[in-house]
Amino acid sequence: MAGSILSNILIIGATGNIGKYITSAILSANPPVARQVSIFTSPGTASNPSKQELLSSWKSQGLTVIEGDLQNAEQVAKAYEGVDTVVSALGRDGLLEQIELLKLAEASESVQWFFPSEYGTDIEYDASSVNEKPHQNKLKVRRFVRENIKRVKCTYVVTGPYIDMFLRFVPGCEGAGGFDPASKKAAVLGSGNEKVGFTSMRDVGKFVVAALRHPETAKDKALKVQSFVVSPNAIVNEFEKQTGTPWTVDHTPIEKLNEWEREGWESGSPVATLFALRRIWAEGKTLYGKTDNESLRVQEEDLERLSTVVERAVKGEPY
Ligand SMILES: NC(=O)c1ccc[n+]([C@@H]2O[C@H](COP(=O)([O-])OP(=O)(O)OC[C@H]3O[C@@H](n4cnc5c(N)ncnc54)[C@H](OP(=O)(O)O)[C@@H]3O)[C@@H](O)[C@H]2O)c1
């Protein structure tokens, strides 16, 4: 989108955890950011009964659904025809598939802008980031872009952890942190005073729209954005305020988390990724002197507050 010219956007991974917020935000952007919005999705997702309500509501907002196989170059090239902007929200296991998608974008006649799937922890926060196992596939994608993608511009939207997910316990990993309004119990890492920069899932969608509105700021950048910065203890306080009663809080020593992480990597358990990310967040690696919120013209009042997200959790609303 060059300034006032509206985009033709193709979204990949649109119905996933974060893709659905990004797609909904793009479709309902006011003023609009796109003259046309399509999604490229697998036949399995397109026919999945649990996705029909969402797909129908998007179609009623003008969305086009293209069914196909991401690994079929011909189908992807066809889906790219006339598209100037590709937004990928592929899940972790599909991150490396983006290398072929980027090659096809570079070879296409129309694609000029590509958002690889990030929307999370800063994978180039400091010198230690390059060694973090959960970052490796995203790092490979960034390296591929630096070395091979010359014509198409890329934007990475770095949001830190989603507060909506952080508020929930992950079954089997309760010690890594979480909050349960039913039992009024919380688990926090260490003292619980270390602040973390969070983004709500709805705000991730807003930031992607803001990036689309400001190509001059967003192109060729890893944008660091967040809704707010808060400590786990402050989250407990907000839950206590909203539920009107004190909560029981367990503290997991960081050494214990490190041990679970080590065991997880050694046994090849997928929860190792969760433990590693929780450690990175507790180490303060979501904090910045200055974010890109302002350069994207996103103000504090445009964003969700902790109290709103806690209210949804207290009501038991799913994210
Ligand atoms: N900051 C955080 O707290 C946080 C939390 C979760 C995720 N994230 C990040 O957000 C991004 C998207 O993650 P997500 O959890 O939203 O994704 P997801 O729901 O697991 O998957 C999104 C979509 O990707 C498509 N896909 C195609 N091939 C795939 C493959 N081989 N493996 C997985 N998905 C495949 C599927 O859509 P189709 O069937 O339509 O092709 C799927 O619905 C990732 O970069 C992830 O690291 C961040």
UniProtKB/TrEMBL annotation:
Keywords carried by this UniProt record: NADP, Oxidoreductase
Molecular function terms, GO-annotated: oxidoreductase activity
Residue ranges occupied by any NmrA-like domain in the UniProt entry: 7-257
Coiled coil start-end: none
SUPFAM superfamilies, per the entry: NAD(P)-binding Rossmann-fold domains
Matching Gene3D superfamilies: NAD(P)-binding Rossmann-like Domain (3.40.50.720), UDP-galactose 4-epimerase, domain 1 (3.90.25.10)
Pfam families xref list: NmrA (PF05368)
Keyword Oxidoreductase attributed: yes
This protein's name: NmrA-like domain-containing protein
Organism: Monosporascus ibericus
